[in-house]
Amino acid sequence: MNRHTIPLGRILGIPIGLDYSWFVIFALLTWMLAGSYFPDEFKNWPPLLYWSMGFVTAILFFASVLLHELGHSVVALRYKIPVRSITLFMFGGIAQIGAEPPSAIAEFFIAIAGPLVSLALAILFYAAQPLVAGMEPLLGVARYLAYINFALVLFNLIPGYPLDGGRVLRAIVWAITGNMARSTLIAANVGRFFAFLLIFAGVWQIFTGNLGGGLWIAFIGWFLDNAASVQIAQVISRGLLTGHPVSQAMSTRCAVVPADLTLQQLVDEHILGGGQRSFLVNRADKTIGLITLHRIRDVPRSEWATTSAAQAMLPLEQLKCVDPDAELWSALELMDRNGFNQMPVIRDRHVIGMLSREDAITFLRTLQEFGKLPAQQPKT
Fold this sequence. Notes:
Layout: E1 5-11, E2 14-19, H1 21-41, H2 47-78, E3 83-89, E4 92-97, H3 104-128, H4 136-156, H5 164-177, H6 180-207, H7 211-241, H8 246-249, E5 256-258, H9 263-274, E6 278-283, E7 286-292, H10 293-297, H11 309-312, E8 314-315, H12 328-338, E9 342-347, E10 350-356, H13 357-370
Parallel strand pairs: 2-3, 5-6
Antiparallel strand pairs: 1-2, 3-4, 6-7, 7-8, 9-10
Helix pairs in contact: 1-2, 2-3, 2-4, 3-4, 3-5, 5-6, 6-7
């Protein structure tokens, strides 16, 4: 979970959270239901009932979205793929899958699981309508949830990455070609095509008088185009970095501080003056840990003058370290899965460098300037 997310708890060990943008769409959806949907469908309700049912329906809609994402997550876990979190936000929900699927068939089943859950919910709420026909508030809730879950199925099955339909398309192309990178590029470009269609449709709606709906459709199209573009850039980056070892991108100029240096001295003399964000902590010429700005911020400022770097550091044995001959892309995936910004590079139990995201980005830019360079062969 990042700092813009409110944690709600865990389901199946998966952290569940709310992005702050969720409150905007939740308020808008409640207002739309209370001010438009329920009054149009059911006349003469008290105003409080309209708002109560709008609130309840909005909550149940996002519960449906959560179940949709849990569908993806449960299948991912069955394939031994970690799920870092599920976050509800302005555009619905997203499950942060911790690794790429091992095969095309795994990708297919993970992708299709969410729409199948939404379809099951749509059928369930549709079947429930005759049972609550005599209770208008419950009928209104069931009718809307049947409709919106079915709409969620149709929208998510648009065959453009990163929508579920795009992931299904990627799985099919992957199975045919045997090339995951190529299938991702194809699905992402199809996703951009549909994103541009949504943007065009939204602009058309704006010029025909539907300002609010047109802006929303265009905004969704922009979001999908941005997400698809990120996937395309990631595939290109992976192609450039594949085969290159960590040693080519790592920094050998590691900032080192003594274990007994106080945090106040560290901030005053090294961080504010030099701009460094992470430091190796040494005791008797031996590296014993790593201290970062995050670790320093975890210590109350009133205790900086009496807390040493060794007390605040993350011990070396608890750090994820990487071999200099490891593939750079694999190291970046490890950093991403664990939420690290840097990792020590170790050979023969000695720290010989640091690999940071900034180092990898700088190296990638160099490769982009020169084109694909021959990968350095690992040392034996």
